Structure formats: structure tokens, C-alpha cells
Amino acid sequence: MLSPVKKATHRLEPLLNPASIAIVGASNNAARIGGMPIAHLTKFGYQGVIYPINPKYDEVFGQRCYADIESLPEAPDLVVLAIAAADVTAMLRRCHAKGARAVLVYAAGFAEEGAKGKLLQDDMEAFVATTDMVVAGPNLMGFANLNGQVHTNFASVFNTSPMQPGSGTVSLLTQSGNVCAAVYAIARRLGVEFSHFINTGNEACVDLAQYLEYLAQDDGTEVCMGYIEELRDGKRFIAAAEEFARRDKLLILYKAGETEKGSEAVRSHTSALAGDQQIYSAAFKQLNIIQSNDFVQMAQLANLAQYRQRSAGKRVAIITISGALGAILADKFILQGLEVPTLPQALQDMLRAGIPDYGMVSNPVDVTGNVVNDPGFVRTAMEALAQSDAIDAVVVYAPGYMLDRMADDLCAVAEKFPRLFVAIDTGAAQKREQMRNGGVPVFEDIGVAISALSPFLLWQERRKHNRWLDVRQQPAPARTALPARLDEYSTKQLLVQHGMPAGAERVATTADEAAQAADAIGYPVVLKVLSADIAHKTEAGGVRLRLQSADDVRKAFNEVLASAARYDPKARIDGALICRMESGVAELIVGATRDPVFGMTLTVGLGGVLTELYKDVSHRVLPVDEAMAREMLGELKAYPLLTGYRGRALGDVDATCAAIAAFSRAVLALQEQADEVEVNPLLVKEQGQGVCMLDALVLPAAQTISNH
Amino acid sequence: MLSPVKKATHRLEPLLNPASIAIVGASNNAARIGGMPIAHLTKFGYQGVIYPINPKYDEVFGQRCYADIESLPEAPDLVVLAIAAADVTAMLRRCHAKGARAVLVYAAGFAEEGAKGKLLQDDMEAFVATTDMVVAGPNLMGFANLNGQVHTNFASVFNTSPMQPGSGTVSLLTQSGNVCAAVYAIARRLGVEFSHFINTGNEACVDLAQYLEYLAQDDGTEVCMGYIEELRDGKRFIAAAEEFARRDKLLILYKAGETEKGSEAVRSHTSALAGDQQIYSAAFKQLNIIQSNDFVQMAQLANLAQYRQRSAGKRVAIITISGALGAILADKFILQGLEVPTLPQALQDMLRAGIPDYGMVSNPVDVTGNVVNDPGFVRTAMEALAQSDAIDAVVVYAPGYMLDRMADDLCAVAEKFPRLFVAIDTGAAQKREQMRNGGVPVFEDIGVAISALSPFLLWQERRKHNRWLDVRQQPAPARTALPARLDEYSTKQLLVQHGMPAGAERVATTADEAAQAADAIGYPVVLKVLSADIAHKTEAGGVRLRLQSADDVRKAFNEVLASAARYDPKARIDGALICRMESGVAELIVGATRDPVFGMTLTVGLGGVLTELYKDVSHRVLPVDEAMAREMLGELKAYPLLTGYRGRALGDVDATCAAIAAFSRAVLALQEQADEVEVNPLLVKEQGQGVCMLDALVLPAAQTISNH
Questions:
Q1: Is residue A330 less than 8 Å (CB to CB) from chain B?
Q2: Given CB 3.0 to 4.6 Å as the disulfide criterion, which of A612, B61, B238, B351 pairs with B361?
Q3: Do B445 and A259 touch (CB under 8 A)?
């Protein structure tokens, strides 16, 4: 019997770490799906019990073969079904009757194949729901738990890629078996050692988020690479990703469906809805998940992760033997969002003492080819770089033998100081392995180095202070009831309760009241028809701007109400809203919509048609605090309009951030009552003068609400 | 003596293909710069005569060593100077006296090292200008002509990378020796075989464009990879690149200085001005040069180029054994600007006959893992894809053994049909070499495949019809003289001569003339002060809009002239311009500025502050015809504003393109007289109603004009 690797008793334990495995449809042919898992189990040394089941055989791969599941001497932890789709549910009943704790279903021909398959899958799900069995699949390639050599897969990549010598700490979790195999093959070529190889298939009963939850808790997993077509349980996913962050594990995710064509192709082959790509990216960013849509980058990141306890961050010092390469590396890092700060003068002076005049000392540093022959200086320079608080990480470029000459010094410095030093060698340095083992990762290509290092260093930077975990610790706002009539005034008042500023404004039900209101507010004013039934006030002739006197207001009141009544005779009109005519620096749109995966999400952008064309918006999953709001504003290409671009007035950025955080609280307080909340525009006034909602809208939840 | 490899007698022939090479400062130590070139020449089998020169030795690497250049038995074709900067010019005089045809100068310490080095370089250039010697460098690593094993380099990469067995067709031309070595090492690992390895150093007397001109004419060069920090002769560069296009050769260029930091770093190490990155990109695009800022991508492209005579283009069919991988590939190609068209129904039906229901037939095609076992079907399907006119190229993804099973069929189809088939294998297929030799390139990674294939297929597409070569064949417009007074009216009239439309407008010198003009034009009108001395008319109070009557016009005339006189008492005011008040769909800015490298360049964008922030502009080097203008408009993210975005009126795109082409002619006709010409705004009216210049400006050339 297999002694459990760890104490955790996650629900997926009998699936992923079973003490016994039965294979229904067992075969002696290692090329068949009923044979390959048994071949793997025996070849790679699974320590648990294997029960091949097939009435045609007495023995399979040296193991006694049983005629049927009922004949097994015990209830198996896990049953693998290598049988056709049509037979699956009946067999699940027999597995359940036998007392199996988990079942894995290979068969395709379920929901991914249209209406008929969908019925089969519905049947299967309905039965499983009546049990406490863990059922993986259908339509998958199986998994491998490489720390226990638990193989339930028919992945030939385990035959073609070299098997790792011992246990590993990197897990792979994908919604496609072929992607799982492709990434595994690439990562194994880099020497990455794996903990789990899991593909989730149709996720009828166990979805990706549940596996992720398991891996978050799994002591054997320190890094997880994932491939996602669609998340079925956003809440659980967020919780699992938070657990990764809390335990200081690295999560790297590929989200498929970058284009419409790609999304279509994903849908056709798994019946998944690809979801909103921008919201996925926003959520990943908030959760400090590295998003990577490149297999090699993922594998390189997983490999680099072994150095993740070295101190690092986004300020990079670049040391090269070539001015051109220094410039190239600086370009690349900066384009990826890192910083290449000019070194402090004292450090520059120290470097200049050992570097010829035609070299460079500011950063990038060009030590020139001669310097590699002066090991004393190299050591001194590296030690100084290891201790400077002006930088977070050091990247050294030198080809082949030049890197070899610096290798011992690099290793010595890496041993003495925690700072991350990275080497890039486009030649053929002999001491690569020595450096890697000595704490200095070595890349063989500039592009690959940049593509792995940049997100890794940004992850390191964000990991120092994970804002999302902070915000999530704050208590959720108490529920606010939606008012019965959602006109502009009541909507704004609802948001005002949570701290969102409105301008001076009053409701008037008669022309005289309107004039009084305007007198009280001060001219000029804006008059708008007040009706929960009229969404497009301007189209309805329901808005008048720049009214300068009580008479103008009276006249406007009568005209606007008449016009609105003509526009929609059935609308209930409650009067007019009189508002101070405000002016400011810029108008933003701040909106929340319900994403089917992640629940209520926030969008901030500049108003207007060009912003739409340029897609210049920033998204976040709620809650959003002031610091996150500032980050969102900073992501807008139009942000300089708030910060004095070309002599414009400065906008009140602090007040804008406070208002966005207030909006977040208001939306959360509405809970399931609203599907959409929008302030459009939010007027940003000059610095110190605050912001002001010019219009606001709530779309009540249509009907039954999911529990996202 | 070396028999010349080719007939061409380009000026650089004695440098790059010398029959004899003298090395001043020759050394017996292969690790020294005076030794390594001789070691390479002897080791790799140079067939010409080698003359080591050093009074300290009698023999160097088995060659007789001479005491000084004067002792040589003949005038050498090429002399390599492995001596210090301070001694170079004196030695150049001696080389010239001896009759040397070309000299190569290694020494650093010239213009790249500041004022003192600059003086040395000036001296050297001044002397060389009095001779017809070709002098390469200074500050370089030397070159290799691998088709004649001419080595003048101290590049250790020739010792560490395996030497190619025979001649090659790929040249490498860089402004950095280290970049040259790095790209060479990467490309050699892919098996790329080289023609020339050239780095240009400080380019005191021979610049990159001259080398490029040589390589364009060189029959041994079919592909050139280049690395550029700064071009010193844009005209010559354009002519050389045109020659590449005319001879159907592929040019791949890296332009350094993508960020300000990178540009600075480039400047500090070569004293080069990095120039405008956007203009470089525009010129490369016009000349159908592939711009690549990644060494691996460059090397992969050079490797892929051996398949460039296979028919290909931007419409890709994707064939995979995995729906997920199909979706991923479709995403990637589309993001890179390629098309993944839905296959014609007949082709889909044909595919469906052999593909299970859970596979996909529309494109991407998922043949499923089973199909590789049905070679008859694979062959039939591939032959159908080879002949479909709905696609241009076929990309096949299958890992390892699955690709092996299709390999014979792929090769057979590639032999029978000219269409490009490409394979991607993330596994470890055994038949990779067979496929490559059989006309089917094989990539080992998806990211690398996309990054090489996408620009390659776009190059193939543009190569079918090179618009730039067409436009350049058209005669240049005759010179138009600049009017003496460059006020708005004369500027517009200048542009009108070349076909740029202006609205109805008249000059008035009195208030009554203004009123008469307005009556004739029709109301409403715009009145603007007319003065070549007042650039900012609005600031000067010199513009009145929407004038509705003759009285309004008279009043406005007097006010505007008075205001302008107050604004600038010294300005000569010539009256006012009365224009019809035009309205339209959008306002563009169309401008030409003189780029220090490429000469007059055109910029088109939407007017306004957001366009600036979003950098939503398109650039081209002149001339630009209507078709190119259309391409420029299509590059604008704001283009949908002209094509009915969200129910807006359609703009007159045809008239806009005609106007841009007219603008191009006008700017070229001004030749060296103007440094900047701008129409801002150009009003685009509704479809069928044309366009109209609302304002225009010419900035006369400041002083002495270069001949760019």
C-alpha cells in the first residue's frame, strides 16, 4: 500500500494520490488507451496496487487481470474507465456500488460533440451528483502524479521525454491533453521536474478550480503552469489563486481565445464559452498570476522559479561586454515594463576605475571585452552591484568564453549575497551548469531571457506587497437596498451613500420649484427630465444646458416635460432634476458589469468615441481600493489628460481614486440586485476641487442570479 | 592568386574579395587581433596570398613575415591594420604609397570615444578623401567572406561555431561586431550557411549602405540580415534595398534604439544619432524589408528563406491533431496580421469524410489523433489543400510520432505542388531532416514558428506586388517655386496646383471686399486674417467662424485686422481670407517633415490631442500614391470614423487618398525649398463630397540643405 505523501485530505486526494488503481478496459498493448497507463505504472514504479479489469485477459503487464469490477478483492481508491462514452454512466454505477472513491473517464463523445453527447454528459452528471465519488473527465488524457508515479494517462510524451530522476515541484494543469503534453515536453527539455501533470477534459464534475485548490494546498507543488479555455467557477478559482499567493507559490496561466477566431475554435472543440479575455487578464494581474501565452515562456518561467527566493524586483542593472548588446537589453527590458535606472555616481566612479574610456558605466554598463581578463575588478564590481540599493537584480551578458571567465566570480557573489544575478550567453559557455547550480540562472538566448525575466521580475515586485490580499481582508460593505424608482436622482443618491460625490442638485416637480431650485443652486444650471423610464434623456429632448435665469429654467421645465411626454407617452415622469452646471478637466466613465466568470467587474476609461476605438480602458475584479484605482488610471493611455498634459490644468487624481473606491463599495453593497452600474460621465475637476457624477445608471438584475 | 568569384566590379570588391591580404601588426598568437585573422585564413583555406607584416617575426602561421609594408613584393589588394588609433593615418599614407586598394582599420579610440578621437577620425577621413582607397572601420571586428574564406576578423565565434562545409547564401551586415558574432552563432546552430559576415564599425569612409549595395549586387548573397544603429546615407540605403527587392532577395533588418534609454546607450557607444524609429519602420515596410528586433527570429527567417521560392501568402490553413492547438495557432497568426480563412464548403465536405465528428473542418482543421493512422486520407487531404485557391500556405501541427506518420505524405505533396507546407513539432519527430530536405520546413516550437512564419508570409504577400517599385518608376514632379509670401492663401494655392482640394475662398483687402466675397461664396463663412507673419491666427484673435451676413463680415474684418495688429505690431497684414464654412465627417492632419536619414516623409493622422496621446499616426517616405495612402489610412486605429463607425456618415475615403497623393506630389515638387509642409486640418466630407483643406502651412528650408 502507498503511504500518503502528505497529510492534506482534500476531496481530490483519492483521485490524485490513490493507494489503488483499477483500469476498466485494460489492455496488454501499450499503444492502446487501456494499456499505456498500466505500462507507465509498472515501468515508472507506482507503489500502490494495480487492478487491470478485462474479461479477455488473465494477466496484463504482469498484473493479475480481473473479469469485472465486482471481482476486485477491495474497493479501489481510483477506477480508470477506458471504455466508450455510451457505457460510462452504467459503469459509474457499478464503481459506486463497489465503493470506489474516484473515477477517471477518458471517453470523448460527450458535451464537446453536440446535442447527443450533451445528453450523455447530463445523465452522467446527474448520477454523480447523487454520490460522493470524485469523477474526472470525460474527454481527457489522464494525469500523472510524478511524486508517486501515479499514471492514469495515455500520454506518449512520458515515453519520448526523459523521466525525471526524483520528485519535482512544478505542476501542470490544463484544459487540453495535447497542450499538457506539449508544455511537458518543452519543460522537460529545460530540466524542469514535475509534481503533477493534469488535464481536466470536459470538467463535468471536477473543474479546473478544484484541481488548482488541491495544488495550492499540495506541499509538493511550488509552481503551477496552467492552460485555461474557460473557468467554470470563478470564485473558487480566485480563492485558490489567493492561496497560491499566500503560500508564496508561483502561478503561470495561459488563457486561450485571444482572437474571435481562436475563441470560436476553442468553443467548437470543448463547448466552452471563452469569456472576456480582458477580464481574465485583469483578474490575473490582481492575483499576481503571470499570464503567459507562450509555451516556451511558461516553461522558462517554471525553470526560473527555482531561483525565486533570491531577492529581485523591477530595477535591473545590465552588465555587458558590448555597448550594442547593452542598448538592446535596455530597450527590451524597458519595453516590458522594467526599469534600467542610471546607477548612483559613487557606483559609476567605482566602475569607471576599472573600465576603459570607451566603455559605459551609467547602466547599461559596458565593461568592454578587456575587463573579463581582470577577475579582481569583475569580483569587486559584482559585489558592489550586489549591495547597491538603487537596483534589484543584475543581468550579465557575455558570449561563451567571456562568460566563462566571469563564472567563478558570479557564483561567489551569488553565494555571498541574496540578490538575483542572471547570465545571458549567446555563445557556448562551458560553465553554464556550474553557474546554474551556483544560484545564477543562464539563458542561451536574449529573446527568451527577456520574455522569462520580465514577467518574473514584475511578479517579484508585486509579490513584495500583494494589494489584493489586503483588500480582500477588509469587511464587505453591508447590503444596500435598491430604491423602488431608479431615476437619475435616486441612483446618484444611492452612490452618494457610499461616498461617491454628486454636484449640487435638486428635484423639482413644477416649473416654479425648478426656478427656486436653480436660484438656490446658483446659475448656470442644467435641467434634465426625471424619469426612471427614460434612459436616453438627450434623445427624448429631456436635457437643457447652461440655463442662466429663473425664467429660462421655468421655460425649459415646461418644454422638457412636454418633449419627454411626446417621446414616450407611457413613461412615468417625476419632474426634473436641476443641477449646477459643472466644468472640469476631463470626463471619465466608471462602470461595473457582471462577468459570467468573475462576477462584478469594474471598468474605468475616458468617455467618448475615440476611447472606444482605442480600447483605452482598465478593468478590475471588485473590490477595488484607492491604490488599485490609481493603478487603473495609470494604465490609461489618456491618463496624461489628468496630469497636466501640454499645459492643461491638473485633474484631481486623489479625488478620482477615492470616488472609484467608493463606487466599488456601492456596487458590492448592491450584491445580486444589479447587473450593471455606471457613472458616465464622472467629471474630474481641477486639483483640489474633487470630482462629480454628471449622470448615473443602475441596471437591476434581470432574473435569477448566479452566486458569483 | 585568387580567381574572382564573380564579374561585378563594385568599389568594395578589393576589400571584400581581395586576391592578397597584408596584416600590419601580425602576431603568432591566435588570441591576439594581429594573429586571429591569419589563423582563420590559414585554417579555413583562403586561396589568395597572405602577407604578415611585423619586424619582430620572420614567419607567422607558416607564412613569410615582412618587416614593413614597403617590403612587400607587390601592392596588396587589402591591408589589415592591427595597430593603435594614433598610428593609423600615418600607416594609411604608407599603404596608399604602396598601392594598396583597400585597408581595414580595427583600432578603437576614434569618434566613438569623444572629442580627441573625433579629431583622429577627421584626420583619417581627410586623408582618405584624397585617395581612391577603400577604408573600412575604424572600431570594428573585421569581416569574413565565407565563399572565399577571406577572414580579416578577430571573431572567436569562428572557432566556437562549426564552420559550414561549403559556400552559403546568407549575409550578415551589422554596425556592431558583437551583434554580428551573436547572430552568426545562433544562425549557425540552425544550420544557416553564410556568404558574408560584415561589421561596419564607425563607418568613417564606408557606410552600411555601401556594403548593402555590394551585397544586393553580389550573386552569392540571397538573404541579408542587418543590424542598424544609424543610417548615414538614406538615399543609398533605399536604392540598395530596392535592388534587393528587384532581385527577389530577402532583407531582414534590426533597428536598435527602441526606447530613449536604448537610443542613448547606442549613441554613447558609437556616437551615432539613433534617428526616428517610426520613420525607419515606415521605410522598411515600404521597401518590403522584414523588420526584426530579435536575433533568433532573424536567424529563423534566414533559415526559412531557403523555402522562399515556394508559393505562399497571408492566408493560412492550420491542420492539427488537437482542437486546442488549432485555436492557439489561429490566435497567434491572426494577431500577427495573417488570415485563417474558413475553408470552402466543398473542401470542408471532403475533409469531413475522413475526420471524426469531434474533429473540426472549417480552419483550423482538427483531424484528431486517429487520422494520422489513415495515410490515404492524409495524402488526399493535403493534396486538396495544396490546390485550393482559398489559402496560400498550410501549417501542420503534430507532436513527435504523429508528425512522423504524416512526414512521407507531406514530402510527397511538397514535391508535387509548389505551395508552402510547414510543420510544427513540439515533440521529437524522427523525420525532421527528411521533411526539411523534402521542402517542408519544420519548427520545434510554436512561438518561434509564429514569429518567423508571420513576417515571412507577409513578405511573400507584399512581394507579389511591390508598390514601392511601381511608384518609384513614375517621373518626379517638376519643380514648383515657393511663392514669395507664404500666407494661408498662397500656401493652399500652391497645393491646389498639384490637385489638393481647397474650399471656396477669396482674399479681401477691405471690409467691403470681404462682404462681397462672402456674398459670392454664400453664408455662413469663416474670416481669417491673412498674414505670412502670423502663424497662430486663433491666438492673435484673427479668426471668426459662422458669419451669417455681409454686415457681420464687415464688422469681423475690421475687428480681426485690429486684433492681429495689436497681437503683432510688426506683422505685415495682407487682408483677410473669406472661406465657406465647411463641415464634414472627420478632420485629418496631413504633414510632411524632413527626416535627417530618409528625407521628406509623410505623416497622416486624425487631428486632436487624443491622437497625439495615442500616437495614432501612419508614416511613409515619399513618394506616396493613392494605394499607399489607403494603406496609411487603414493603419489608423481611428480609421473606422471614416467608414461609418456606429452609424456615423461614411467619409470620402477615395478623395482623401487622392488628396494625400496630391500632397505627396506637391511636397516633392518643392524639392529642397521646404522643411515642413502641413495641411491641418484636412476636412473629410461625406462620401462623394470630397475633402477640403481648412488650413495649410509651409516652413521654408532654414538654410543649407543636405541632398537627402
A1: yes
A2: B351
A3: no
